[in-house]
Structure formats: C-alpha cells, structure tokens
Amino acid sequence: MERWTPIVALALALIGCVKDREFPDKVRPPAPVVIAPGVLKVNELLAAGSQNIDEFGVASDWFEIYNPSNAPLLLEAGKWFVTDAGPSNTTKFELPAVTIPGRGFLLIWCNGMNVVGTRINTNFSLSSAGEHLLIFYRSGAQEIIVDDHIFGPQTVDAASEGRYLDGEDNWILFTSPTPGESNQ
C-alpha cells in the first residue's frame, strides 16, 4: 500500500489543478440584468414646437430613453411600458421587443398613432403644459418604476429638455435638440 501513496497524492494534486482550471471553450451564460430603478433613463424630450418629422411626415413630440450601462439591454415585449399619465396608468403604451445598445438611445415618437413600424409611435402625445413621463417594468407580480421625469410647461421655441450629461441628474434646455443622440 505504501507504494501507492505517492501515486494517489500525485493524482489528487492533478485533479485539484484541473478542477480550478478555466476552460476557454466553455460557454458561460451572460449575467442576468437586474431590472431596478435607473437601469434606463428618460434622457431628453420635446413636447412643444418639434421640428423633427416622424415617419408619417408630421412634426411630433418625442422623448428618448438612454441605456447608461456599457452592455446592451433587451426590452422584452409585454414587460416594458411608457406612459405620460404618471403612476396612475403604468401600462398605457407597451414597448415592443427591442435592444438598446450600451450607452445607446431609443427614440420614441409621441404622436398618438399607436403604431410600431420602422419607429415606435405611442398612443399618446406629450402635453406642452407639462406632465409626468414614466418608464415602467412589469413581470408577473413584480412592478418597478425604472425612471420618471415630471416636466413643466414648454414653449413653442423648439427647445428640448434633457439631461446633461447623458443619464445624469442635471436637466437643462437644449436649443439644438438631439433626438436619439448624445445630449450636446
């Protein structure tokens, strides 16, 4: 039995080395995205005097959602909603399945058309008198307000209201709106 002791010890040492080794060809699932407040941000909006033309050829209200993460985020259909009615009507408009790239933007037209075609067109328009815009996540019994912004009256001077810098807490007016792009 004594002659097997060094062989058993060597075998155990080798098993320990193999057990701790990383295999480069091993596929690991992506880390799950935790849906929590701040995972997406209302980043910029224009509720009066838009000069931006939607896919129907109409100058329409709009807002953009910003993904502050470096990783893309897949919005699953039936789980993500936007509303201009605040928390009283959280499922007013269901977002389609769409991926927002890391540090990227999703432009949403608020023209009352209720169409998801080449662009997303909500079933509501933004009020130039101001209102409560909200991004909402729902999965079963889980309901999370992901982000919201209460904006006041906007004048018809084509100035948008947005975060400076993207995703930050500081809201300012932009004389040159940047729908779907970084706030300048």
Q: Which topology does CATH recognise?
A: Immunoglobulin-like
Which assembly state applies to the chains in this document?
A: single chain
- Kindly give the count of domains: 1
Structural class: mainly beta
Largest sheet: 7 strands, mixed
Give the DSSP E fraction (strand runs of 2 or more residues): 25-35%
Overall number of strands: 13
CATH class category name? Mainly Beta
Q: Approximately how much helix is present in the residues? A: under 10%
Write up this protein.
The protein is mainly beta and 184 residues long. It has one domain: Immunoglobulin-like, CATH 2.60.40. The protein is built from 1 helix and 13 strands. The chain has one helix at 5-20, and strands spanning 41-46, 61-66, 73-75, 80-83, 93-94, 98-100, 105-110, 115-116, 120-121, 131-139, 142-151, 160-163, 171-174. It has a 7-stranded mixed sheet with strand order 8-9-7-2-1-12-13, with no helix packed on it. The radius of gyration is 24 Å and the shape is elongated. 28% of the residues are buried.
Summarize the structure.
With 184 residues, this protein is mainly beta. The protein has one helix spanning 5-20, and strands spanning 41-46, 61-66, 73-75, 80-83, 93-94, 98-100, 105-110, 115-116, 120-121, 131-139, 142-151, 160-163, 171-174. A hairpin with a 3-residue loop joins strand 8 and strand 9.
What are the main properties of this structure?
mainly beta; Immunoglobulin-like; 184 residues; 1 helix
